[in-house]
Structures are given as structure tokens and as C-alpha cells.
Amino acid sequence: MADSKIELSLGSFRFSCEGEKEWVEVQLGRILDRAPALLSLGGEVATTSLGEEVGEVSTEEARPVTRRGRKPREVKAKKTASSDPLLDYLKEKKADNNQVRKFLATAVYLHSQGAQKFSTPMISKKLKAAGIPKLSNASDCLNKNVKKGFCIKEDKEFVLTNEGIQAIIGDANQED
Q1: Residue 24: per-residue pLDDT
Q2: How far is it, in rounded angstroms, from Cα 117 to Cα 9?
Q3: What is the pLDDT of residue 43?
Q4: More confident call, 86 vs 73
Q5: Do strands 53-54 and 151-154 pair parallel, antiparallel, or not at all (unpaired)?
Q6: Segment Disordered: which positions (predicted)?
Q7: What gap in Å lies between CA 81 and CA 164, rounded to an integer?
Q8: Which residues lie across from 18 on neighbouring strands?
Q9: CB–CB of 35/10 below 8 Å?
Q10: CATH number for region 81-174
């Protein structure tokens, strides 16, 4: 027999599961982490990683959900990555897969927006705000760009060199 049961509704999305308390908490955590993507499903039926069907429910049917006596998490709607100009820019510059190039291209993008000095946290935060997967080691990406002559370190910040800017912008001019 199940120890815990939980039902959760977010807009037209409904999640329900029953089982051991720890397992139910893990499943709820997974759903809450994926809430922004799930909210965009509209009226479609989704499936969890365990193959359980997840469909829609009216908000009147929803019961408030608390986790270990805490207030329910607020779900903040994030921008979808496909609608962000930074992601479009990274794809255009072929910098969406290579981490070192993604780091440099993000700095060049920020430079085009008027920034002159940068930091690794600034780059990481901009990628996160755009919904783009984070860099595994931003400091290493900076160091590799410094070795290539694309950036110059200045205390805890760095600046782009003309070579660094041209490595990103110049590629568009050199295509077939």
C-alpha cells in the first residue's frame, strides 16, 4: 500500500503519483524542475520518465501541494530558449555546441550590446537567463580564449581583443 499520494496542477498540466514517501518526493522534484517546459504543453498529454500519463485538469480540481510542511514552490515562467536573441546569435555564429566558442560568442554579443568589460559569472548568468545550457567550466573557457589571444585578463574581469571579436564576427563574412 502507498505511503504518500500527491496531485499537482500547473495551468492545464496535471501530475499525480502514489508510492513510497521518498519516491513521491523525488518525482515531485523532477516535475517541479521541469514545470516551465510542461506548462508549454497546453492541452496535450505528456508522459513522465516513468511512462505515466500526465494530462490536463481544471484548476478547481487541483489541490494545494506542500512539500515537508513548506510552502508550495512558485513556478516562474522562463523564456523559451528558441525565442531568445542570444541563442539565435550563437546558432548563427556556429557557437551553440563548442563551449569555448560559446563563451567567446556570448562576450561578443554582450560587447555588441555596449558592455566593455566582462567576468565569467556575467557570461554564465547571461546564458542561464537565455535558457541556454550552462558552461561546464567558464574559467577554463576564458583561459583557453586568453591563450588564443581572443581575451585579455584584467584583475577579475576580462576584455575582448579585436582578434576575439573577429573570430566570431569575421566568420560570418568568410562563409562560402
Answers
A1: 78
A2: 44
A3: 42
A4: 86
A5: unpaired
A6: 50-78
A7: 25
A8: 5
A9: yes
A10: 1.10.10.10
